[in-house]
Amino acid sequence: xxxxxxxxxxxxxxxxxxxxxxxxxxxxxxxxxxxxxxxxxxxxxxxxxxxxxxxxxxxxxxxxxxxxxxxxxxxxxxxxxxxxxxxxxxxxxxxxxxxxxxxxxxxxxxxxxxxxxxxxxxxxxxxxxxxxxxxxxxxxxxxxxxxxxxxxxxxxxxxxxxxxxxxxxxxxxxxxxxxxxxxxxxxxxxxxxxxxxxxxxxxxxxxxxxxxxxxxxxxxxxxxxxxxxxxxxxxxxxxxxxx
Length: 243
Description:
The protein has 243 residues and is an alpha+beta fold.
């Protein structure tokens, strides 16, 4: 397994409120997390950095190579729960942090199996030479409207409330995460990114840049360059894992 990552202010923002971390748990296992903070200049970066740090540390503490199936899912849910409680507690204790929160998307990849968890609208994609599939489902207002048939995916990209999310780490005392399990193999990829990337690139563009490139090492930088040429109104973060 190899991985590459990139995070950037974008072309408009003055502070990067995204955060990511990647850790090898053993020679066959990698853990990645991406967070997109919110809550203003004083708090968004605190929420994302804190959530990513707590999540990674809790998984490392609880990790065992014999964890599989329901026990593995339970461990990841527990790490999300602890990250949520920690951010929420800080938001209650510190006036400047009031109302802060963050998205979270993470993947634990071991051998030919991957488990993905998410809260909010930061995404994970599964990519092969044959196609791209969004693993996660956005917890957002526009996704709810799409599900109800009130918006098409094309119109959702231009909808004024596209950045409103319905779940976040730290905004409530408890939060529910989604968990996805998938099979992976050679010449496949998992991409995790914030909406600063996914809002400005469609799936087929992402597929082309990753699966059909001879320069995998610079994929994240190329994605960033494309988004910045399109105005990059938000922070842009991506983590790409090649199997």
